[in-house]
Request: fold
Amino acid sequence: MTKIKLMCAGIAICLLVACNSNEDKKAETLQKVAVDTVSVAHSEDSAKTIINRSMIWSVEPQSGEKEKLKAPENAKLDTFSSENLVKLINENFPDIHLDLVKVSHDTIYVKIPDSKRLTEEIGNTGADNYLASATFTLTELKNIKYVNIDLKAGDHAEPGVYSRADFKELR
Reply:
């Protein structure tokens, strides 16, 4: 009888370990698939690393000093809610927190409560790239043409109403 209890306990421990290690591998695989890290090192004042889950508009380096906006692949952002798009932006730029204020007519209103990272630390290029990415992503919403961004002005970014037309140089 003791051998049977001991054998059952051994089997239970093996099953427990096998189940847990499989979950870790699944989570690790999903994380590798979900996160694609792009390093931007060609400009001193650009953000050093941007997490890009291929779900939002992103600015990618081209030959020389040029950069270009890249549309998300198969994301169908127009089917997302405004809350979900803000969440995606925040996941991709964890150092710059964006809050949804409201959606009214053709404008989405957002706020960056602590804008120091955006306005003082990532330089002109980093700030422009963030604003372009956020603006293009949020204007994917049906009938939204403008993004009203409230933040404390700094050397590299200021509050205002942005549209896709503001980032012609990245097209």
User: Anything to note?
Assistant: Strands lie at 36-39, 49-52, 58-61, 67-70, 99-104, 107-111, 146-150, 160-162. The two ends are 75 Å apart (CA to CA).
